[in-house]
Amino acid sequence: MSNLKITLVGGGSLGWTPRLFGNILQTEFLNGAEVVLFDFNAEALALVQRVCEKYATQAGSQTTVTSTTDREAALKDANAVVVTISTGGLTAMRHDLEIPEKYNIFQLVGDTVGPGGLSRALRNVPVFLDLAHAMEHLCPNAWMLNCSNPLSALTRIVDRETSVKTIGVCHGVPNVAKNFAQFFGVTLNDCAYVNSGIDHCAWFTDFLVKGESAIGRLKAMGVENWLTRSPEQAEKDETFGSLSRLRNGIRFGLDLNVLPAIGDRHLFEFLPGYLNNQEQMNQLGLVQTRVEDREKGKGDAQANLEISLQKEEIEIPQSSDNVAGWIAALFGGPTIEDNLNAPNIGQVPQLPTGAIVETRGVLDQTGIRPVVSPLSEDLEAIVRPHALREELTVDAALNGDFDKALTAMKSDPLLPSPEIARPLLEELITTTKDWLPQF
User: Fold this and answer.
1) Is 207 helix (H, G, I), strand (E, B) or coil?
2) Half-sphere exposure for 75 (CA within 13 Å, toward CB)
3) How do residues 282-334 score in pLDDT, each as one tens digit?
């Protein structure tokens, strides 16, 4: 029986924590673990704890769950620390999205790159660094598993500035791989693929379905004709409709002989020329995730959790991220292979050493071993500038360096003109100053 202590930072998350805890309960190696939920929102924490306790009782698990608003108690002697936080929450994120739109900059998600991703990084990098320093003191041998965006920048600051072992967790690539497998009517075990890039800008540089090229099969099935249709027609198409969320990425990737390993809503924030106005986004079928959408999702999640407490038996949810499997593997459980966001030690030779890159990799008790996954020159031209900008962003956030933040902003492909970078950055910093003590 497991004696591991697993701390969930952001444990009051109404969406993340129930799924992560469900993942832990269904991982046999972790049965008996001590799960500690840490959050400053005591009300949310109490609700989530009650739900998780019900999950554990229903599952007949020996795993325990407690909660605390005391960070030191939460981290003390932890083996694994899973982080799902967003400094400033939806209040701050509203500024990340709405202020750029005043400058005619449209973002689909706004949590990774573009003005919104930069603004979010400036808030969260110091918080992550402070958390990691606390871990160095309270649980120096623990692994940090980061699920928070901008995932690359936040994982990078911890790896670069502290001794904490850290990796980033994102379900995007595995989910897209499953999407392709289901489209071809096979299981993931029938597929072989190589993915490379950085979080939310990832590509399948090779994808085989029962030994055949996935690109070749798509072309033979008429994908190029499907790509010419309107978004509405494309979504209703009996053959290709299930790939609609990848449609623009497929169109872009075919010219480079690659397939997208992440959905359009994230990928197209990394590329220039696609988000110039609402009309263009409508023509491409690119849909924005608004703060109102997230607020509704949060409200729905709370209502569903409250309803679940009234039921005699409830379905225990599962996370798309196999966080529990990763923790088990790192502490002596079954070895697994999964999609890693990890420091570059040569697995992507075209990107800077130390940058957080996304490839497949193996996890076991010895740690992580990423798979070497080179980028073509075409993909390097797309991905490398973002990796360089990420380092500028981390430096800017760490030191309150306006000039470095401005350089990152000016060079971002979503900026229609470098002249607007300064007033836009100044407005973002002024509006979110409550979370930016370093500036």
Assistant:
1) strand
2) 23
3) 999 999 999 999 999 999 999 999 988 888 888 888 888 899 999 999 999 99
Contact 193, 212 (CB under 8 A): no
pLDDT digit string, tens, across residues 210-235: 999 999 999 999 999 999 999 999 99
0.85 surpassed by pTM: yes
pLDDT digits (tens, 9 = 90+) for 163-201: 999 999 999 999 999 999 999 999 999 999 999 999 999
Indicate the SS3 state at residue 83.
strand
Q: Are 327 and 6 in contact (CB under 8 A)?
A: yes
Mean of per-residue pLDDT scores for the chain: 96
pLDDT tens-digit series, residues 354-397: 999 999 999 999 999 999 999 999 999 999 999 999 999 999 99
Residue with tokens 């996890």: 363
* pLDDT on residue 319: 80
Q: What is the rounded CA–CA span in Å between residue 381 and residue 197?
A: 11
Residue of 357, 389, 392 whose CA lies nearest to 375? 357
Q: How many CB atoms lie within 10 A of CB 102?
A: 11
- CA separation (Å) from 288 to 77, 298, 347, 381, 428? 41, 17, 33, 26, 20
pLDDT digits (tens, 9 = 90+) for 330-341: 999 999 999 999
Q: Which residues contact 24 (CB under 8 A, 6 or more apart)?
A: 6, 30, 33, 35, 63, 323, 324, 327
Q: Which H/E stretch holds residue 146?
A: strand 143-146
Q: Do 351 and 385 touch, CB atoms closer than 8 A?
A: no
Structure tokens at 192: 């072989």
Q: Please tell me the distance from the alpha carbon of residue 91 to that of residue 101, in angstroms, as a whole number.
A: 16
Query: Residue 248's closest CA among 272, 270, 231?
Result: 231
b/e burial code for range 15-47 (CB count within 10 A of at least 16 → b): bbbbbbbbbbbbbebbbebbbbbbbebeebbeb
Sorted by where each starts, the structural domains of the chain and their CATH numbers stand as: 5-169+315-334 (3.90.1820.10), 173-284 (no CATH)
